Amino acid sequence: MKATCMNQLELAVRWGISHRTPERWRWTGEGPKFLKVGGRVVYRLSDVEEYEQSIVRSSTSDRGQAQQRARDYSSRTAVGRGAAAILALSLACIPYQFRLNPHRFSDSLTEKPETGLA
Question: What is the pTM of this model?
Fold first, then answer.
C-alpha cells in the first residue's frame, strides 16, 4: 500500500532539511499545506508535490509562483511591502527579547532591584 501522508520528520528527510524547519514554516505560514489530526501534524503527499511544483524556478533571479503571489498581494495592501516586512520582523523579535530579560517588562518600574550591598 502506498503512503499518501507523511509526518514532519518524513518531510524533513525527503527534502534534506532540519526537522524543525517545517514546524517554523507552519508558524510563519510558509511551506506546504498540512492537516492537524488530533494532536498530530500530517502532510498529504499531493500537497507536498503541489508545493514542490510551486517553488520550481528556471533561474536564480526567478521569483517562483509562491513568492510572486505574496509580492503581488503585499503591493496591493495599504501598508506596502517595506512596512509590512519591518512590522513582521519587529513582532517576531518580541518573544525573543522577553526571554533574554523577563524583568525588563516588569509591572513595577519604580522598584529598584536589591544589590545585596549594605
Answer: 0.51
